[in-house]
Amino acid sequence: MAKQSSQTKHNSIDNTGFSPNSSAEGGRLTNKDGRINLRKTGIPFYERISVYHSLLRMSQLTFTATVFAIYTTINLFFAALYYTIGVDKLAGTTPVGSFIEDFLQAFFFSSQTLTTVGYGHISPVGFITNVVASLESFMGIMSFALVTGMFYARFSRPKAYILFSSHFLIAPFKGGRALMFRVATYKNNHLTDAEALVTMAVHVQENDKTVTKFFPLTLDISRINSLALSWTLVHPIDEKSPLSDYSEQDFIDSRIELMITIKAFDDHFSNTVQQRTSYIQDEMIYGARFLPMYARSDDETYTHLMLDKIDLHEKAELPQ
Amino acid sequence: MAKQSSQTKHNSIDNTGFSPNSSAEGGRLTNKDGRINLRKTGIPFYERISVYHSLLRMSQLTFTATVFAIYTTINLFFAALYYTIGVDKLAGTTPVGSFIEDFLQAFFFSSQTLTTVGYGHISPVGFITNVVASLESFMGIMSFALVTGMFYARFSRPKAYILFSSHFLIAPFKGGRALMFRVATYKNNHLTDAEALVTMAVHVQENDKTVTKFFPLTLDISRINSLALSWTLVHPIDEKSPLSDYSEQDFIDSRIELMITIKAFDDHFSNTVQQRTSYIQDEMIYGARFLPMYARSDDETYTHLMLDKIDLHEKAELPQ
Amino acid sequence: MAKQSSQTKHNSIDNTGFSPNSSAEGGRLTNKDGRINLRKTGIPFYERISVYHSLLRMSQLTFTATVFAIYTTINLFFAALYYTIGVDKLAGTTPVGSFIEDFLQAFFFSSQTLTTVGYGHISPVGFITNVVASLESFMGIMSFALVTGMFYARFSRPKAYILFSSHFLIAPFKGGRALMFRVATYKNNHLTDAEALVTMAVHVQENDKTVTKFFPLTLDISRINSLALSWTLVHPIDEKSPLSDYSEQDFIDSRIELMITIKAFDDHFSNTVQQRTSYIQDEMIYGARFLPMYARSDDETYTHLMLDKIDLHEKAELPQ
Amino acid sequence: MAKQSSQTKHNSIDNTGFSPNSSAEGGRLTNKDGRINLRKTGIPFYERISVYHSLLRMSQLTFTATVFAIYTTINLFFAALYYTIGVDKLAGTTPVGSFIEDFLQAFFFSSQTLTTVGYGHISPVGFITNVVASLESFMGIMSFALVTGMFYARFSRPKAYILFSSHFLIAPFKGGRALMFRVATYKNNHLTDAEALVTMAVHVQENDKTVTKFFPLTLDISRINSLALSWTLVHPIDEKSPLSDYSEQDFIDSRIELMITIKAFDDHFSNTVQQRTSYIQDEMIYGARFLPMYARSDDETYTHLMLDKIDLHEKAELPQ
pTM of the prediction? Predict the structure, then answer.
């Protein structure tokens, strides 16, 4: 458990949206990817799921596979319908009596209808077949309208594309210590007006009960005009910090979690984007400082940002 | 009618957008679903309706039915055109003289043209039929362009997905009383920077006239960083509250309405979302407190939020 | 010209984006529909036009006509190509030697290709025809992709749908006078957090030159939580007002222009919307007050907003 | 190198997102088009690229060419598949044995399938060909869904369309000097609530090392209600300015860079738009003033903004 003294000197906050009741919480509060470590129950699954949010979060592979699976399922459904009505109602096919071959002909007609390619070498005959084909092509267009929308939604979803250093450091800073971590944008995007918010959750003993206390960690610079190069976020561990009394051992023994939110304006999306992550005490390196991750290019015409060096640090002596 | 004394001690506000003239208002001001209880007249229906807003609010069933009805209507319209021009102008059909059968052939050709499936076993012959078919396929593509847009608009519309407790409670709070209600997000969405605004409308007698007065209800915490778990909103009924003098009977006799707006930032939409609702005095439980609706999961690796317990409360003694 | 005394007592502002040089300005500064009364030259037309902005502003009729005209033009272009290549390269057609009939066959094939309906009773033969047909169907799909986007953009464009009273009034207010006008939303939209900004431009003589001075007109209430009913905007003409010394005749003789911006948050668009308009002195009614434009419904269950009464007013005596 | 005295009197800022370490930077910090002069390495190319951002930035020509190249590639791929399966499996074609002609037939069938035009004079025969054709038409629809989304994204991307003067001037201003540049919107868009932020980077000698210092340049008016006409941005070079001690020669000898961001609200996009640019000392004209770029129209009914005069200036005497 973390040292109590520094915790009581400082005011904890209760507007984090998390509960001070440690016994109600399991695991870390926020996952590395920024999602709250939480499951919801009590209402039916389909009411609990925002299809939109799910589709946005899916990997591209899962998304494509999902769309393909739905396409095949609809195809099979309509093929079964045509087969039931009778393959003889599909002009251009020759019913051979074999289930597989007849079904396949129905399936191929179905797929030509669903995609509206409609070659016409197979064509519907009679009232029912025509109605089903008409419905299928309508449904095809509707589905592809939906898929177009989903593709666009996934594609155009504003994202921050921020890379975080794997660890946070306790580094020397202005004769004292500071908690530091580093971020950079890793795509060809450009963020302006970037703002960072760091909240620390600490599990402490209070009257024989473990409670979670929340402290805002003030940053040396919490807002920058442009997230152009890398940005090292610095929380000075001075007397105003809830970590001021922590020795190296205190840090190691503590159960803390840093919850980080970075909000910025993306030029190209013309939208505010936000990314969250968290660090726990196991992701700390005590006594280290970050080394620069950018340099002048060889031809001196531009600046070179090396993203693989975001974790680059060296050991550093800390004042006791 | 509610007690007058507390109403006059406190300053009412006049920037709610609602009228202080009770005799001009009918029923509650804001419906449970957050819509203003209002009808507009005086300009033609089509000018008064934003098709976009209507389509966004429709249920998925109504929307699909609407699209299908329009599809069928256009189909029927063009089928009638082809029938009028003459089914003999559709190569591949055999005019049988029966209205129904001939019309059906025209209808199926029409639907194959509208969806651009165009099998070709029926094809247009002659100038007029070709022109109509050309127009229909153009119109088909235009309509489906529109429908694609609508689907996407409905699909991607930023929504808050906030669940409100069915009742508000008058609960014990720091030795006194407080008005409380509870919210939680019920989907796999995540809201940050959530802010709540509560305005109370009270109908009171003033010089023999019933007037509506509006009071802001200050919240103990009105803004949280993350709407992660449930959030209990607390208005302390202290001497600064316009409800400070209300006895249980005053609450029951009163005609009050709480109008609530919650605004937050949705990570995935990267947009501000907002949800409104209202409570009236009949939706109050006097002397009760909420019980927790979340707990540590059995395997202690995450927190479990039980949405069906949002109304869970127990009776509680209130100070007099 | 307006009275000078009141103009000089008050500080004019210079951050309106308009010029104080009256001789450089023609007509009113802002049109009734909120557009700046301005034309731009000096760079080529196509660089000066944002196709997107133009398409958003077009009426639905103009838009549909534009799309149809482009569709027909592309069709004609490709028909000419097929005709030039030779109608004998379109299997299923019978070249009759008549220009019109042969061209029509090429045109119909073209439209079947562009819309991808592709019946197939006419089909391309030979290398060149096939290449052209392939390009045309590709182009068809690209164009309809574009049109889909445009439809959606027009459709989903956030608009405020605010109705303004035709006139502004000089009305009695708290024993003095006030400048008033009235707004209401006229669609099934709902605006929250509405804010109004009123700037007055006055053309005054200064050292034998006509200059335009700009004054902010402070409003009694400039921000409301919800634009639910109608909203009467009130600028009190007290000693702090630049209009304080204006007699009825001064108003009539003056050359003033009120430029109004209303900004609000739309629940369904989840977006900030903005609408602008302007009033000039000819749109003033001196000595009048607005009458209510809403009432309780007959069955007392809702409030009824009568949009055709937005201009409803009665004569009113003004203090001198 | 610039004069040191003025640099030390004023506080530099360190929240620009750029580095004070001049030796790590190459060339200018911000390019004329507002992009940071920076390259990123260290993670694989495909992780470093946001396809969305790239597609948004492409010229229309590059974009169309890219789409066409992808279309042709997919076509060739499927044509090769059909050719490998055998042209005899495409009913309606006559295998002639010549590679080119057979491949072309496969290619044309492929393109008719991909665009879903599906004339049907060529149609798939047998299981494998049908499956491939079914996949191709599915893929066609998916691709065109994607392209529709991209078209819309490019089309609807909020842009500021702001024109900057080519140079900044040192001009006479209120008996002293001021740094000025000029902007105007050049399209039929309208910006409100425009705000400008100017940061100056100066490379100075400090302890034998070249460091980059950043200073905010305060503007006489930094925010205007409406970017209606042109807007001349004015930084007064008074005692509060970090440029106060600069003589003409100092300006010429200095290595400064002005980084400019203009943020505004676009009425039609209903969105905040932002544009950036930079000026370096070589883009300065010392001793000049801007001449008006707008005038009353000949018929006196509107104001005329001449965009080709944005750089129009005359020589002007400066106080020493």
Answer: 0.82
